[in-house]
Each structure stands twice: as C-alpha cells, then as structure tokens.
Amino acid sequence: MQGYGKLGKAEAYLIIPLFFAVFFLYYSAGIVNSSLFSDTAGYLTEELELPGNKYESVLFFVSYVILSAVLEELYFRKAMISVLRPYGKWFAVTMSSLLFSVSHWKASRVIPVFVSAFFLGLSYYETDNLSVPTSVHLLNNLFAFLTILISSKIGPEVAYSAVLAVVVVGFLSLIVLIMVLPMGKIFSSEGSLTADGKQFFTWPVIAAVIVYTAILIDSCGVFR
What we know:
By secondary structure, the protein is an all-alpha fold.
C-alpha cells in the first residue's frame, strides 16, 4: 500500500465529515466503555494541562497535535496494515486498531480509541492514501488541544459544550457518509482497492516504527 499522497477533490471533501463522524463514534463508544470500566474519567476530554511557559506550550502543540498523529499513522496504519494485508482486509484493520488502542493504556479509553482507529484504518485501506487518516487524526488532536485550552482559559463547561456540539455534527456527518459512500464496496471482504505490489517499507515508515517503539518502551518504564 502507498503512503502519503496528494489529496484529490473527493478525498479532501471526505476529511471534514469523516473527522466529525469518527468523533461521534468515539463519544458513543465511550458511553459503552463507561459501563464496563470504573475508571471512566478522561474518555471524553483529555486529562492534560498546558505548560505555563509559552515556548513549552509550542513544543507541546507540535508534539501532541502534529508529531503524534504523523508517527502513529505511519506506525499503526501504514506499517501494520501493509504487513497484515496478506491476511485479509478485516484482519489487518482490526489488529492494527487493537494494537493502537492497547498502546493508549487507559482502560477508560480502550473501546473508544479502538473504534476511531478502526475507521481511520478503514479510510486508509479504501483510499490507499495515508494523507486521509493523518488529516483526520490531526484534526482530532487539534480539537482535543483546543478543548484543553478552552477548559483552562475559559472553563470546563464551555469546553464540554463544544464537545457536545461536535458530537451532534458528527452524528449528522455519519448519516451523510452512509448515504453518499459506496457502502457495498467498503464493507466487502476485499474493498475497493487492489494491491499494487509496491514496497511499503520506506525510510519514513522505518523511522516511525523505531521512534514509536522507543516511545512505547519508555512509557512502560523498561529503562527506568
């Protein structure tokens, strides 16, 4: 499967409603998740605080919003789905999504993260363009960053209202996507793409795998 490519008009139009729809699914899955785990805090809003220093805030924005989205998409979508693709579409998308959700550690977020990752993986599989899930991922991280900013500067009630507004728009976006997209092709066993036989391990993918693996190992405290 290919990596980043130029967004066509149809793909560009897909990104915004896909972001809203994925967020709605994340929120809905979080409700289910909250009935299964007692640790429910944080599935809807991030438990993070902005650094006080403006330079640290810029670094936080770059790492949290941009780098994490790019690295995770290269690692979990590009590399893993490409490797697992010979075993079938649903196995590849499901396993990459499961590993993605487990990597986020918190029990309160396992199901919501899995659901959103599944549709990001499906969007990559169907479009064969990593720019699509990465753009959605970037928008999601940006929105999470803005809710943290709004919550700290204005108040959590305003941030929660913004989240609920996005959820409502997400529900409507999901209905539009179901009506517009060729669901028969998307939910078939093969999908609308065909393998092109190109080498999928490019240097950016290898670098992302190494860096993200190091981050995961460090988060486990192996070297502490």
